[in-house]
Amino acid sequence: MPSNKGSSKEDIGPPNQSYDDAYRLLEDLPTGLPAGEDLRSRVDIALPEELPEIIKRIHDIRDQRAAILHKTFIGSRYLQAHPEEFTEVRHAVDAVREYSDNQSNRLGSGRVAEVYKNPNFSHVCAKVVRNMTRYRTENSVDVETGFLEDLADLNVDGARTPHPYGFIEDINLRAIVMERLHAISVDDLTSRRAHILFSEEFDPARFVGTLSRYVEAMHDLGIYHGDLHEGNVMVSINAPHTPYVIDFGLSKKIYFSEEVKDEPEKDRRFLPQISAKLKAWRENIDK
Ligand SMILES: Nc1ncnc2c1ncn2[C@@H]1O[C@H](COP(=O)(O)OP(=O)(O)O)[C@@H](O)[C@H]1O
Ligand SMILES: [Mg+2]
After folding, report:
1. What residue spans define the domains of the chain?
2. Using one digit for the tens of pLDDT, what is the confidence trace for 44-81?
3. Which ligand is closest in space to the CA of residue 145?
4. N- or C-end of the chain: fewer Cβ atoms within 10 A?
5. Whole-model pTM?
C-alpha cells in the first residue's frame, strides 16, 4: 500500500502515473525460485566461494521486495496499538471505504465478498466482505491474507495468486487489499463470450495444464484451496493468458500428511470441469 505519510488529501486525488508504474514494475519482478527449492540444485557450475554471497543477495532482494509490497494494516484496534501509524492506516481504511461505496468500481463478486478497483491506483483492489453470515463460516480476512502471503513467491510458468498489500478488520469493514489482476474469471469469460479480448493463441489445454501444475505445487506447500471453481480461477487478459488462482476463503493449511486425506482430490476434481467449460466456449467462438 502506498504510504501517504506527510501528504495532504489533495495530493492523492489524480492518478500518479510514475508511482503506478513503479508498483507495476515491482509486481513484474521475477519472484525467483519456487518456494522451498534449493538454489544449489539449479547451479551446475560450482562457485563454492561466491555462491553463499549470491544466495544472500537474492534473499536480500526478495526481503526488500516483500517489505515494499506487503504492508499489513488493520482498523481501529490496530491503531490503538500503533498510534504512530495513525495517518497512514486511517488513510488506507478511508480510501477503501470510499471506493468500495461506488458501484462503478466493482470488478466482481462472489459468495461472500465484492471486489473493487482503486480508481487512483490501477494495481490495487479491495475484496470487501458483504455477507457476514457466510463470512463467519469461512476464513477471516487475516487468515485469507496469510494464504496470499504464503503463496506470494510461488510462480509456475506465470500462474500465481494476487500479491497481498494488507487487510482491514474493523467493526464495519472487513477487507483484503491486494494486487488488482488484469484478468477475467473463467466464469465471466465463458458466460460473457468476451472473446474479443482474446487472441487466437489462448489454448484451453495449455491453460489447464499450467493450472494443474500450479495446484500440485500449492499442495507441495501443504496448502489446499478447497473451492477451485470457475469464479476462483482467472485468465490473464494479456498473452500468454496465464491462470491466476484467487479466493482462499475456504482454504486449509495441512502440515501432517495423515490429515490430508482427500483434500488434494477435492481440488483436482475442479480441473476437468474448468477444462470442459473453456473448450466448449472456444469451440463456440471458432464456429
Ligand atoms: N485480485 C483481483 N483482481 C481482479 N479481480 C478480482 C480479484 N480478486 C477477485 N476478483 C473478482 O472478484 C470476484 C469475487 O472475488 P472472490 O475472492 O472470489 O470473492 P468470494 O470470496 O466472495 O467468492 C472474482 O470472481 C473476480 O471476478
Ligand atoms: Mg470466489
Report:
1. 9-179, 183-286
2. 555 556 667 777 776 666 666 555 555 555 666 666 67
3. 1
4. C
5. 0.78
